[in-house]
C-alpha cells in the first residue's frame, strides 16, 4: 500500500484554478495534492534580442520556491546572486515543454513569460508547474486574441507532465514527497494532448531499472497525462 493509500495508477487530487492573479494576462493556481504552484503568464511587447527582426516570438519560464514551501526555510536565491543549478534546469524544462505546443511565428515578435512560484512543495513541483503553466499560457493567448493581437490561435495542443517511479518494488504514478524520497527509480514525463513525447527524465536511485519497468512507467504516465489534459480542458471551457 502506498503511503497516501492511492492505487498505483491513481493521481493525487488535482485542481486548476484560473484567474487568481489580478494583473497577469493569464494565471492558474495548480494543486497536485499538497503541492501548490502559482503560475502566471505575462506578455512582453518585444521578443528577446536574438529574435529581433525574425518575425518570431518566444515563450519562456521562470521557477522559484518560496522560503517556507518546504519543512524548513530555504534561503531566497536572489540573496545568493543567481539561481541554483536545479532551478535553472526546471525553468528550462518548463519553457521547452510549453514552446513545444506553440507556433512561435503566430505570436509575432512578442514574448510570454510564465512565472511558476511554488507555494507549498510535496513532490512533483516541476510537473505541476508545466500542467498549470499551460492553463496560464492558454489564458494569456486568449487575452491577446480578445484584443485582436493575433489572427489565429498559436496554441497547437495541450501539454502536461507527471512523475512516475518504482517505489516498494512497484511502478506508481504521481509520487508525493514520501514516495519520491525513497523511490528506487524516479522519472518525469512530459507529453502533449495528442500523445507526443516532449521530454522524459528518468533516474535510478539504487539498482538500474529494466526496459520492462521503463515501459510500465510509460504506460502509467500516458494514462495520468490523459487525465490531466481532460482537467485542463474542463478548466478552460
From TrEMBL:
It is an enzyme of class 2 (transferase). GO terms for biological process: rRNA 3'-end processing; rRNA catabolic process; tRNA processing. It catalyses: tRNA(n+1) + phosphate = tRNA(n) + a ribonucleoside 5'-diphosphate. InterPro entries: ExoRNase_PH_dom1 (IPR001247), ExoRNase_PH_dom2 (IPR015847), ExoRNase_PH_dom2_sf (IPR036345), PNPase/RNase_PH_dom_sf (IPR027408), Ribosomal_Su5_D2-typ_SF (IPR020568), RNase_PH (IPR050080), RNase_PH_bac-type (IPR002381), RNase_PH_CS (IPR018336). Its EC number is 2.7.7.56. GO terms for molecular function: 3'-5'-RNA exonuclease activity; tRNA binding; tRNA nucleotidyltransferase activity. It comes from the Bacteria. Phosphate binds at residues 86, 124-126. Residues 10-140, 159-223 form the Exoribonuclease phosphorolytic domain. Keywords: Nucleotidyltransferase, RNA-binding, rRNA processing, Transferase, tRNA processing, tRNA-binding. It holds the Pfam family RNase_PH_C. Belongs to the RNase PH family. NCBIfam families: RNasePH. HAMAP family: RNase_PH. Phosphorolytic 3'-5' exoribonuclease that plays an important role in tRNA 3'-end maturation. Removes nucleotide residues following the 3'-CCA terminus of tRNAs; can also add nucleotides to the ends of RNA molecules by using nucleoside diphosphates as substrates, but this may not be physiologically important. Probably plays a role in initiation of 16S rRNA degradation (leading to ribosome degradation) during starvation. Homohexameric ring arranged as a trimer of dimers. This is Ribonuclease PH.
Amino acid at each position: 500500500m502506498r503511503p497516501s493509500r492511492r492505487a498505483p495508477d491513481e493521481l493525487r487530487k488535482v485542481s486548476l484554478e484560473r484567474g487568481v492573479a489580478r494583473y497577469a494576462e493569464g494565471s492558474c493556481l495548480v494543486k497536485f495534492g499538497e503541492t501548490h504552484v502559482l503560475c502566471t503568464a505575462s506578455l512582453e511587447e518585444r521578443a528577446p534580442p536574438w529574435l529581433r527582426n525574425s518575425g518570431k516570438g518566444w515563450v519562456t519560464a521562470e521557477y522559484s520556491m518560496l522560503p517556507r514551501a518546504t519543512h524548513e526555510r530555504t534561503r531566497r536565491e536572489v540573496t545568493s546572486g543567481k539561481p541554483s543549478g536545479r532551478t535553472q534546469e526546471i525553468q528550462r524544462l518548463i519553457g521547452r515543454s510549453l514552446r513545444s505546443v506553440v507556433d512561435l511565428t503566430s505570436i509575432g515578435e512578442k514574448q510570454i513569460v510564465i512565472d511558476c512560484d511554488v507555494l507549498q512543495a510535496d513532490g512533483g513541483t516541476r510537473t505541476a508547474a508545466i500542467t498549470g503553466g499551460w492553463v496560464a499560457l492558454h489564458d494569456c493567448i486568449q487575452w491577446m486574441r480578445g484584443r485582436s493581437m493575433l489572427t489565429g490561435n498559436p496554441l497547437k495542443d495541450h501539454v502536461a507532465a507527471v512523475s512516475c517511479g518504482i517505489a516498494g518494488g512497484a511502478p506508481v504514478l504521481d509520487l508525493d514527497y514520501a514516495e519520491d524520497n525513497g523511490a528506487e527509480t524516479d522519472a518525469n514525463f512530459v507529453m502533449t494532448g495528442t500523445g507526443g513525447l516532449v521530454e522524459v527524465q528518468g533516474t535510478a536511485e539504487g539498482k538500474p531499472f529494466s526496459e520492462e519497468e521503463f515501459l510500465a512507467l510509460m504506460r502509467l504516465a500516458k494514462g495520468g497525462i490523459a487525465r490531466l489534459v481532460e482537467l485542463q480542458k474542463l478548466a478552460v471551457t
